[in-house]
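>> Question from a student workshop board

For tomorrow's exercise we were told to take the sequence and the ligand below, predict the bound structure, and bring the output to class. My setup keeps failing. Could a helper post the expected result so I can at least see what it should look like? The ligand is 2-acetamido-2-deoxy-beta-D-glucopyranose.
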Amino acid sequence: MSTKVSVVSVLITLALLNIATVQSYKILFLAPFNGPSHWFMLKHFIRELTNRGHEVTCITGIKFGEPLGNYTEVLIDPAYPLRDKFPLSELYNSQSYSSDLNNLFLYWRLGLATSRHGLESANVQNFLKRNDLHFDLIVSEQFFQESWLMFAHKYNAPIVTISTYGYSDFMDRAMGLLTPWSCVPHMLLDYEHGMNFFQRSYNVLLSTFDYMLREYYYMPEMNKMAKEFFGDLEETGVPLPSVQSLEKSISVILVNSHPTLAKPRPTMVTLVSIGGAHIRPPKALPQELQRFMDEAENGVIYFSLGAYMQSSAMPIEKRKTLLKVFGKLKQRVIWKFETDQIGNLPKNVMISKWAPQNDILAHKNMVLFISHGGQFGTFESMYHGVPTLFIPFFGDQHRNAIRAVRSGYASKILFADITEESISSQIHDLLYTEKYRRRAKEISAMFRDTPVDPMNASIYWMEYVTRHKGAPHLKFSAVKHSVLEYLLLDVLGAAVLVLVLLIFVVRRCICKKSKQIVDKKKQH
Ligand SMILES: *[C@@H]1O[C@H](CO)[C@@H](O)[C@H](O)[C@H]1NC(C)=O
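>> Workshop helper replied:
Here is what the output should look like for this input. Compare the format with yours to find the bug.
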């Protein structure tokens, strides 16, 4: 009997080992951009991959900071000085990042700077010098770090990218699709689908501008950078591919987008919406926080401006205004605040340096979220069905806010417009108008209603791409065509040419004939 059991257990162990060897991949994870909220999201993917037995090596500007098996870190140290380059005081005091062109250049400037900073880092340089490593898959954040795609060439591995901020037209192009600018607004625009004439005109203008500048300025810069840092690889005799062609070789882009917030657009099987993947089942809260929320008879408001816009750096008068407004409410307020020095704290307000946002939003007593409108928090509020007051600052925050307001569960206020009257009237409106609550619940139900859990879908695609060596069979052949060919302008040109020729020939024939007739008449 016992031998039988041991035989069975040996067999099971063998089977498991077999699965482990078949399914365990070596993955190089690239996260050179050190925006804290981005990293929070990417960590979920890393954790999930390692939990499933994959070996992850990650190049990152921020430490993982928790024990994790199967995980090796290459730290960009010191990290890119994000806060010196984009000072909070500037963000709090101006609107300079709210224009479309500013936003576009902000992304590119940030992308070029962080990419270079990472590649120059000593640890990354040492990592690049090693030739004893092998990877089955490159997973890279898709956030303006295109020069890093050259890692895929170095390791001859397929690429999956994760777009933390949603869709852009160039992702369509990487998959061989041209975005129809007649119907799909540029990523920076908050137009609803069904644009009017002027909106379409502006959309074409901005999209063309983006396309041309990316093609003739930004991507060549990225290409130059890649040549500079990976040039040694050419010694093997194989010329470096261009970053542009590597972008076209991306197997799958996992896009942090959700149809509940963003409108549908033409897509490819290799563009996968995984909005909400970072939202995990809620865990128990720290004791103090749990009690504070449990005992809130009139509900809890959670106020956080995210990981970047630290509330403690906010101008003092605004902070005082907010505390005054919060102090007058019946609800309890949790304010994510990064220092202990907030001054006189009203009884119903609690500050918390580190707040487990997802777990707080999941609490049954949550009645309102006051947020800067980052993509991650916006999805969390939708998932948990919490009405939201947006205070957007930069990047995609304005767009997220406008979309959420339009979908009926939120309202927004600019930081500069915050006064005691303005913000308390908006808070009251959101708290005591039934429609926001109802709509938030409807949206939550839609948000959760997906055929596959988005994190599971993400892992599936990463494994699929690795299993099938980049899955080239899924790549739309249009990536090989120029825009001219894609739009059939060459065929159209040829057709026009043939037509012109035909007209020319026919006219000559007619001329000849009529001349002959005239000549014949003359003879008579
Ligand atoms: C995700 O996949 C795992 C493993 O296949 C499964 O155990 C889990 O239930 C899935 N999660 C969800 C939310 O579907």
